[in-house]
Design brief:
Length: about 300
């Protein structure tokens, strides 16, 4: 199926007539009519009910229209994103990622970035040994992704939200709440909670303790220096349950990952970087990534916040 024909079909439906659409598209009406007949043939259905000079969508045309509009919109978004990327030639980036969850849409964005700039030297590093402020200010890290509570930062660091807070709990499948659609901390009263290990930037651990202390429930903790990468494996072997500011896309066998609701101390997903970085790739990356996230899911405000 030819994308150009789909785009022309959407324009005809919008304009309400073949002649009006032909004028907008800058093609002869006869040519446009022939193209629509070709599209109908490729789809195997009639899209238009032709009666004299009037033109109306058939039932199949009405059903196809919203899908065609989505195809055109997605294509237009991709073109804008590619054009945006072309405004800056990326060369080198070092990005710190924290926790077991991948930041929203980062994978597809990096895939597109690398396809456009295959010469880009991209380093993705574990954030655990890196303190947020120190690693950014020293230039050791260019960009820092982490879900954290609000806390003071040096004035030279920008804090950029890119998604709504979303919290989860990892339970063994034998837990009484494992069959629920979502869980609150109050329903986990008396449980043993696995703490994130001590790392250079203690955002995840602070998130856990702040919410546990504010919840008023009875609880014990299991504290170890298990790597964040392997922390979920402690749940199915019976060491406790894990509350997390990240969605665990692939929970270990024998566990369930459920939304955790009613937290008094939400952890916001942030992208951190210097406001005036030495690396010229940092600011374009931040703007392009946030725009990509917004267009993909609309989860952040079009007015991106900069902390000063």
């Amino acid at each position: 199926m030819d994308f150009a024909r789909v785009s022309e079909f959407v324009e005809i439906a919008r304009a309400g007539s073949l002649s009006a659409a032909a004028q907008t598209l800058g093609v002869p009406a006869a040519t446009l009519s022939a193209r629509m007949k070709s599209l109908e043939k490729s789809l195997g259905v009639g899209l238009f009910d032709r009666r004299g000079r009037s033109l109306a969508l058939t039932a199949a045309g009405q059903r196809f229209l919203p899908h065609a509009q989505q195809i055109v919109q997605h294509y237009d978004n991709q073109v804008r994103e590619l054009h945006a990327l072309q405004r800056h030639a990326y060369r080198r980036l070092r990005i710190a990622l924290s926790g077991p969850g991948t930041p929203l849409h980062l994978g597809p964005f990096l895939d597109q970035l690398n396809e456009t700039f295959p010469q880009l030297k991209l380093e993705l590093v574990d954030a655990a040994p890196h303190a947020l402020a120190g690693s950014l200010c020293s230039g050791e890290i260019d960009l820092f992704f982490i879900n954290c509570l609000e806390h003071p930062l040096p004035p030279e660091i920008a804090r950029r939200p890119f998604a709504a807070p979303a919290h989860y709990v990892l339970l063994p499948h034998t837990h009484p709440m494992a069959r629920e659609n979502r869980v609150s901390l109050r329903e986990l009263d008396g449980g043993c909670f696995i703490l994130y290990p001590h790392t250079a930037e203690s955002c995840e651990r602070n998130f856990q303790l702040a919410n546990l202390n504010a919840s008023g429930i009875r609880y014990t903790v299991y504290d170890s220096e298990t790597s964040q990468t392997y922390l979920p494996l402690l749940v199915p072997i019976g060491k406790g349950i894990l509350i997390s500011p990240y969605h665990l896309l692939e929970p270990p066998p024998g566990t369930v990952c459920l939304p955790l609701i009613g937290l008094s101390q939400p952890a916001q997903p942030f992208l951190f970087h210097l406001k005036a970085p030495a690396n010229p790739d940092v600011l374009p990356f931040a703007e392009d990534y946030l725009a990509f996230t917004w267009r993909s899911k609309g989860l952040i405000s079009t007015e991106v916040r900069h902390d000063h």
